[in-house]
């Protein structure tokens, strides 16, 4: 890290142990390390000396009545030098505050307890991002233009887009929460494409599709002869993502033994392929996603709390489409243009009644359901103006049945929702002659989600 070697670094923290640990870590990596226990001395210190980077604690044991001392002192530093590179030091519980501090001008943040390698990487990237570009020099800043488009004008989606912009250039692990079909993988790709790792691999893994027997070989790799079908050495997903981003989708579905193995790898930042005793170091930025209530699972001891702490330095919750009513028209027109071009048709108009119908629908399958509904309408519509009858929703897409539709008369028993779901899946499977991919697409589900439902209903 040549750019770090000549750096002068200031560390401001009221804990002597933190100051000592950082000085020991950095003294062989940078030109000079200055430590300061009392933030009140910052103004005078900055008047006398110039620092390339400043590590600043978020909380001090002082009587300063600011709500948060870290933000107060961050502002003081930036008043002295708008170009100062400030890296915040925060505890796990203050991560959301640290993310908001990025808006105030902080370059990045690290979370206590930190990994030394990750701290040095954070320092390196922060210094590179603030370095003025020379003519003809390679651009090492994150990509600002991304091929992944997340559409929306609602306040709910604007909050998500704001978080992506602020979190992407950092090395923070991210946990994305949201219902099926809300676009969790889109957010993961956007985070990667706007990061310093944008030119490195983005590797996605569907964790819900991995059995216990496949887990280690798929993620950690295997050596020739490790098991019956292992005819050659094979790199796992961690190694494939080395230098880039690893996206673990549906992480809430992994079993306790898988959780333990994953935790060990994330702690040590190295994998040991099946059939080998030699660990392989890996450098990845981890993004995870789940539609499962992961904190409820943790409360029931079905998901490890220490693993949650590892995977969600920062959390992004995606709103369901029913909370983004104002975005339905924008998304519908986008998908209409997309599928019209794909199917060699003119871009259709939407009748006013059609758009009203789409806005009133609850969209239990979220954006993915809307996408498939528009695609079906484009293919089957009789005219270039989409009418309400061009959009029909299955029992599953309509969500829980209302009392008036759940049973034919007051004297009849209601049909349980679970039976309606099973009947809908069976009917759609029969329609598609058992084709899982087409059935999943029509139902607005992923193949993995459909497999889980087939297993649940013993189909």
Structure description:
By secondary structure, the protein is an alpha/beta fold. Helices cover 43% and strands 12% of the residues. It folds into 3 domains: 2-130, Rossmann fold (3-Layer(aba) Sandwich), CATH 3.40.50; 155-319, Rossmann fold; 322-456, Helicase, Ruva Protein, domain 3. The protein has helices at 2-5, 16-26, 42-48, 69-80, 95-104, 116-130, 155-167, 184-193, 212-220, 237-240, 256-268, 294-299, 305-311, 328-342, 352-360, 366-380, 403-406, 417-431, 436-443, 447-456, and strands spanning 8-12, 32-36, 53-57, 86-90, 108-111, 174-177, 202-206, 245-249, 270-271, 280-281, 285-290, 314-317, 349-350, 385-386. β1, α2 and β2 form a beta-alpha-beta unit. The chain is globular.
What topology does this entry show?
Blueprint: H1 2-5, E1 8-12, H2 16-26, E2 32-36, H3 42-48, E3 53-57, H4 69-80, E4 86-90, H5 95-104, E5 108-111, H6 116-130, H7 155-167, E6 174-177, H8 184-193, E7 202-206, H9 212-220, H10 237-240, E8 245-249, H11 256-268, E9 270-271, E10 280-281, E11 285-290, H12 294-299, H13 305-311, E12 314-317, H14 328-342, E13 349-350, H15 352-360, H16 366-380, E14 385-386, H17 403-406, H18 417-431, H19 436-443, H20 447-456
Parallel strand pairs: 1-2, 1-3, 3-4, 4-5, 6-11, 6-12, 7-8, 8-11, 13-14
Antiparallel strand pairs: 9-10
Helix pairs in contact: 3-4, 14-16, 18-19, 19-20
């Amino acid at each position: 890290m040549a750019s770090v070697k000549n750096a002068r670094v200031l560390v401001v923290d009221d804990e002597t142990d933190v100051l000592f640990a950082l000085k020991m870590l950095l003294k062989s990596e940078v030109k000079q390390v200055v430590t300061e226990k009392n933030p009140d001395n910052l103004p005078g210190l900055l008047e006398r000396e110039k620092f390339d980077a400043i590590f600043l604690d978020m909380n001090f044991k002082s009587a300063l009545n600011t709500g948060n001392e870290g933000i107060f002192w961050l502002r003081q530093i930036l008043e002295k030098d708008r170009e100062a590179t400030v890296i915040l030091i925060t505890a796990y519980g203050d991560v959301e505050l640290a993310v908001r501090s990025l808006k105030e001008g902080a370059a990045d943040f690290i979370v206590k307890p930190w990994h030394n390698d990750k701290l040095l990487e954070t320092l390196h990237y922060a210094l590179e991002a603030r370095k003025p570009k020379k003519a003809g020099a390679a651009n090492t800043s994150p990509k600002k233009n991304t091929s992944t488009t997340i559409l929306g004008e609602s306040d709910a989606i604007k909050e998500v887009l704001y978080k992506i912009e602020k979190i992407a250039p950092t090395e923070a692990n991210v946990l994305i929460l949201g219902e099926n079909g809300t676009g969790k993988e889109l957010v993961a790709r956007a985070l990667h494409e706007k990061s310093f790792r944008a030119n490195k691999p983005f590797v996605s893994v569907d964790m819900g599709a991995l059995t216990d027997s496949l887990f280690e070989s798929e993620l950690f790799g295997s050596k020739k002869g490790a098991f019956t079908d292992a005819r050659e050495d094979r790199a796992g997903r961690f190694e494939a993502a080395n230098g880039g981003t690893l996206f673990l989708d549906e992480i809430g579905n992994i079993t306790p033994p898988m959780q333990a193995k994953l935790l060990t790898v994330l702690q040590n930042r190295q994998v040991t392929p099946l059939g080998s005793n030699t660990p392989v170091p890996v450098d990845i930025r981890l993004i995870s996603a789940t539609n499962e209530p992961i904190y409820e699972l943790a409360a029931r001891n079905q998901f490890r709390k220490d693993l949650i702490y590892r995977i969600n330095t920062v959390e992004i919750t995606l709103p369901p489409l029913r909370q983004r009513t104002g975005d339905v028209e924008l998304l519908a027109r986008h998908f209409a243009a997309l599928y019209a071009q794909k199917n060699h048709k003119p871009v259709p108009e939407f009748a006013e009644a059609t758009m009203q119908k789409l806005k009133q629908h609850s969209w239990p399958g979220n954006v993915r359901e809307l996408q498939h509904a528009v695609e079906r309408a484009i293919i089957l519509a009789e005219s270039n103006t989409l009418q309400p009858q061009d959009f029909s929703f299955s029992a599953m897409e309509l969500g829980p049945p209302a009392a008036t539709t759940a049973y034919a008369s007051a004297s009849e028993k209601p049909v349980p929702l679970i039976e309606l779901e099973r009947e809908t899946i069976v009917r759609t499977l029969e329609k598609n002659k058992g084709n899982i991919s087409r059935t999943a697409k029509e139902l607005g589900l992923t193949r993995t989600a459909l497999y889980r439902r087939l297993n649940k209903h013993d189909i």
